[in-house]
Structure formats: structure tokens, C-alpha cells
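Name: Succinate dehydrogenase/fumarate reductase iron-sulfur subunit
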Amino acid sequence: MNLTLKVWRQKNRVSEGGIVDYKVKDISPDMSFLEMLDVLNEDLLRQGQEPVAFDHDCREGICGSCNLFINGRAHGPEQGTTTCQLHMRKFSDGDTITIEPWRAAAFPINKDLSVDRSAFDRIIQAGGYVSINTGGTPDANEIPIPKNIADRAFEAATCIGCGACVAACKNASAMLFVSAKVSQLALLPQGHIERKTRVENMVAQMDKEGFGACTNIGSCAAECPVGISLENIAILNQEFLLAKATSNNLA
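Structure predicted for Succinate dehydrogenase/fumarate reductase iron-sulfur subunit:
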């Protein structure tokens, strides 16, 4: 396939960016989207030009690094797929593809298509863990967790923290991400002791980072590559209201 790429180029965080057009030729439909960008960068290097910066790591749909906005959709046109697992057979010969970084104040652009998602790390550091002493390691089968609870916790834990929910939301809300992390631990007995401080601290950090408010449109769940459910946002709201109603921290 021969394609026209409209790629966002930006030198650094403070410089102005813009769309630059590129042509790529002889792209195999079996290539992944990132492999296609590799071909573009090889062409640019041969021409003595600076390659396009973009984030990637595992290229197996696990790490969440490959955060690209493709033709107006987070991770591209295929639902339930990360950018690295999107294949060029989803496009046609002669197509024009617009490639942009995540757009959110809390995700500043480092360069070109690479954004700083460390705001997610700081939210996790605020409370997305179990820090209590649980004693010796018990056999997993000795902890009585109903299967439906274990399944729901596991589904929440599949969040890869890619930020597609933020990019897809008109308010740049991080509620789906935060709710998945809160739900995962709130559902399990190991997380019950710290559940109140956890949700208070994580929501406070989310607000501090500058993410927008949730208005329950559902675009976050629609574009999530691993299918995190909106049900988790309901769990987060319930946990937060319970914590605030019984907390000594009334601020």
C-alpha cells in the first residue's frame, strides 16, 4: 500500500507544533502500525531528516506505551486493540492517516507523538497499593473470595494505563483509569483496610494533576483497548462517598 501520513511534529514541550505530511510506499498489510512508523523513520533517516518520536515498548498490547490518536480515535479504528496490535490491513491503499498524540493538559507532549503520562504514576503512588503487613504468605485457595468478586477484581486489574480513556474523553477525565485501580483493591479483602484513605488520596491526586470531571458519556469505555467497564466508575463513586461520609478528613 501507498499511504499519506499527516503526523503531528513538535520539537519539545514549549515549542509550537503542527501537522507535517509524509508519503510511505510499499507498506505490507501484515505490518503493525508501529512497524509502518518504523518504515517512515527509516526513510527520514536516509534523507537526513529527524525521525518521528513515538512511545513504544513491548509491542504486544500489554505495556500501554503505544498511545497514538489515529484518524480521530484513540489507538485507531479497531475496537479493543492497542496501537501496536493494530495492523495495516485495517487501512486501504491510497488512504490518508492522521496521527496525533494524546490531547490532555495532564499529559504534556514531550516531542512529536510522545507524551508524559507520569501523572498516572503519581496517582498510583498516592494510594494504588496495599501497604499493610499481611503476615506470612497464605495459600491462595485459603482466602475465601467469591468467584464473581475475584472475576470483577481481575477485570479491573487488566487496565494497562495507556491513557486512551483520557484521550477519548471530551473533559480529559481519568475516572476510568482511577476507578479500575480503586475497584481492583476495594473488591479484594487485602485492600479493605486502606480503602478509605486510598480512594481519598487517589481522587485528590487525580484532581491535582488537572484531569477533567466525568460526565458519564462513556467514550472512555468505548475506546479502552482492554474493555474496562463503566461499572468501575460507579464503584469509585460509592467508595469515595463512603470514605468522605465516615472520614476524619472533612476537607
